[in-house]
Design a protein that fits this description.
Layout (H helix, E strand, L loop, with lengths): L8 E4 L4 E4 L17 E4 L14 E2 L12
Parallel strand pairs: 2-4
Antiparallel strand pairs: 1-2, 1-3
Bound molecules: zinc ion (ZN).
Length: 69
């Protein structure tokens, strides 16, 4: 579905949940999200987490080793 996105992480701006694009699972439910409601970035800590709408990491797709890079 969002295969033309080519960044590592995506942030669902409405829910504030960020996802690891390479690890997306059905439980992430991003298929409900409109492309205009997505912020994409390669940098979880430098960009995604600093986004005003960021709230939390996706529990299904973001693994622990990303937690404090
Ligand atoms: Zn996810």
């Amino acid at each position: 579905m969002y295969r033309y996105l080519n960044k590592k992480f995506i942030l669902d701006i409405n829910s504030g949940v960020c996802h690891d694009f390479s690890n997306i699972t059905i439980n992430c439910q991003i298929y409900k999200v409109d492309l205009s409601d997505i912020f994409e970035s390669d940098y979880l800590h430098k960009e995604i987490k600093k986004h005003l709408r960021y709230k939390e990491k996706g529990i299904y797709c973001i693994r622990e080793h990303f937690s404090d890079q």
